[in-house]
Amino acid sequence: MTWFETLRTAGDAVRAHRLRSLLTMLGIVIGISSVVLTVGLGLGAQDKVRDQIDALGSNLLIVSPGSSTGTGGVRGGFGSSSMLTLADAEAIADKAVAPDVARVAPTTSTTTSLAAGTTNWTSRLVGTTTTWEQVRSRTLASGRFFTADELTTGADVVVLGPDTSNELFSFGSPVGQTVTVNGASLTVIGVLEASGATTEDSNEDDLAVVPITTAQRLGGSTSIAIATMYVEATSADTLSAAYQEVNAALLTAHDVTGEEADFSIATQDALLETANSTNRTMTILLAGIAAISLLVGGIGVMNIMLVSVTERIREIGLRKALGATPSAIRRQFLIEASLLGVFGGVIGVSIGVVGTVVLPDLIDQPVSISAPAIAAALLVALGLGVGFGVYPASRAARLTPIDALRSE
Amino acid sequence: MKAHGADARPILDLTGVRKTYSTGAVAVEALRGIDVQINAGEYVAIIGPSGSGKSTLMHILGCLDVPTEGRYELAGRDVSDLDEAELAAIRNREIGFVFQQFNLLADMTALRNVALPLVYAGVPGHERERRARQALERVGLGDRADHRPGELSGGQQQRVAVARALVTEPAMILADEPTGNLDSVSTDDVLGLFAELHEAGRTIVLITHDHEVAEQAERVLTIRDGEISEAVVVP
User: Fold this and answer.
1) Tens of pLDDT along A75-132?
2) Fewer CB atoms inside 10 Å of the end CB: C or N, chain A?
3) B106 closest CA partner among B145, B160, B148
4) How far does B104 lie from chain A, in Å, by closest CA?
5) Residues of chain A with C-beta less than 8 angstroms from the C-beta of B99
6) pLDDT tier at A240, thresholds 50, 70, 90
7) For A160-175, what is the mean pLDDT?
8) Are B206 and B38 in contact (CB under 8 A)?
9) Residues sharing a CB contact under 8 Å with residue A189, sequence separation 6 or more, in sequence order
10) Fold assignment, B41-63+83-230
11) 3-class SS at B73?
């Protein structure tokens, strides 16, 4: 008996019991579609995080103030000291100290209320230097960024993020208009292009950028506490060299040893790694649940195939009487189970793919379609059919034709 | 034309065939030394009441089971000691079964039912169809090829089963109570068909408990308590 004939026979049997075949496949359908979806969700979340971290700029080191050891040896948490100063930024920017550093952008960040005419909006006020634009890979949609002169003099100028601009100025160009912050009137000189990156803690498109000197004046403080310092290495290859240089320069500037370091330096890769490890745990957890439902689906296939063997005992007997060898019968039932697995897999993958298209609109989460995951899911579905079909098929093959024919 | 005479040779040769079933401690001897020769072209009825060993004999003749003791030659080949796969091949080539229950597959057309043994014989598709169609025409159902068993009468279904038995050109047609499920009209119809096939030179072994049916054959063997006796041939 040829494989084609066996396939046709098995296909006829699946078609003859349509409802039962569908119900049998249901477990596999649910399992496979949830595997495709969970893997898609996991990958989608990873892509999103990578996009956000890429959007910070390229070849970046992110320097943050670390914990400080106060008097009496009481150690504060991260960020409890504001030990980064403009002097630190200047030290790092010095080519003699750190030759692999291309640019440094120290930033301050406060949440503040902005007003334009009768409209007001609470946003993030970022004080920085002129290098910010390049370091953070931002471009301007209109107007210009502030100049070195304006930085030195602490000019009353502001560059708005696109979202902030839309909130404050619904009509017309905001460039040249006035925004009031803490009683000071700032002139809008530019609007940033949207970056598209939105993290949970900060929307990179909702902010107001001012010279760091202006921010200091608006805040009413005498010293400048730098929240984050963005350091751009000259290239991806020099990133680790730049890391060492920045570390050494800051240790020297603060006159501390490595153990007492009151700052921390993170690379984009490190940030990505941290963010992804959480995602990965979730993905593994969800995929584990999906795998269990696949297992249950496989057992369902075996169950129904066993029922099918019992129910079709006369057919098996007849086929044997007409010359079917035990191996021909085994093949027939094995292929029938595999067909259920494969059909279930194909339907499951289809639902999964439809889900990856529809789901992002419903839950505001990106979902990726992963070709390797789909291929693996189909293989698993086939494997389930074959694996859980072996026992029923050998039961069918072992039936003696007399017993099989005799049964009513 | 009877196939006796010059070309007569035993196509079926049983010598000292015994079959013992052991259920637990009790051993039941279903066949106690059967010696039967049937020649090619003969029409033989085996008759016996239930419990006589009739079914066991039919299973052994049909290569559905092997004897515990003794020798069984079918078409010149000793089949008393073959394994399952070899028995399947013998059943496929040498025996055409006709059952009381017809045993047609309900999901298939008459044509595909008839072609089923050829599938297991490895005959290619177009050749299968040609031969199955020929067999259906032989039993007078050429116009019913695309009907499913459910769309045919009992007599027609049994004719399809006979066509299926013929399609591999087997050494013997083995019919087990072929009229047991049929009304008298259909019974005459099927028995008429057997008579025609016998006229055409087919070897037919018919197993029954019905004397009227057995009388159609040219030779009647009676089985009782696992032993065979030759009955007087009805003129």
Assistant:
1) 555 544 557 888 888 888 888 888 888 888 898 888 888 888 888 888 888 899 988 8
2) C
3) B148
4) 8
5) 318, 405
6) confident
7) 86
8) no
9) A143, A144, A145, A146, A157, A158, A159, A175
10) Rossmann fold (3.40.50)
11) strand
Q: What is the pLDDT of residue B230?
A: 73
Phi first, then psi, for residue B78 (nearest 5°) are -75, 115
- What are the extents of the domains in chain B? 41-63+83-230
Q: Are B88 and A320 an interchain contact pair (Cβ–Cβ within 8 Å)?
A: yes
Tokens of B16: 């000292």
Of A317, A323, A400, which has the smallest distance from its Cβ to B89's Cβ? A323
- DSSP string for B108-176: S-HHHHHHHHHHHHT--HHHHHHHHHHHHHHTT-GGGTT--GGGS-HHHHHHHHHHHHHTT--SEEEEE
Q: What's the rounded Cα separation, in Å, for the pair A377 and A371? A: 10
Amino acid at A321: A
Q: Which residues of A touch B (CB under 8 A)?
A: 1-2, 5, 12-13, 16, 314-315, 317-328, 400-402, 405
Q: Which of B126, B127, B193 is nearest to B166 (CA)?
A: B193
* Closest residue of chain B to A16, computed from CA coordinates: B107
ipTM over 0.85: yes
Look up tokens 């080519």; give the residue.
Answer: A95
Give dist(CA A245, CA A93) in Å, integer: 11
Q: How far is B27 from chain A (nearest CA, A)?
A: 19
Contact B105 A318 (CB under 8 A): yes
Residue A3 CA to chain centroid, in angstroms? 45
pTM: predicted TM-score of the whole model, two decimal places: 0.71
Q: How far apart are CA B225 and CA B34, in angstroms?
A: 11
One DSSP character per residue, B14-50 reads EEEEEEEEEETTEEEEEEEEEEEEEETT-EEEEE--T
How far is the C-alpha of A192 from the C-alpha of B48, rounded, in Å?
103
Partners of B206 in beta bridges: B45, B175
B40, B8 Cβ separation under 8 angstroms = yes
Distance of CA B145 to the CA centre of its chain: 23
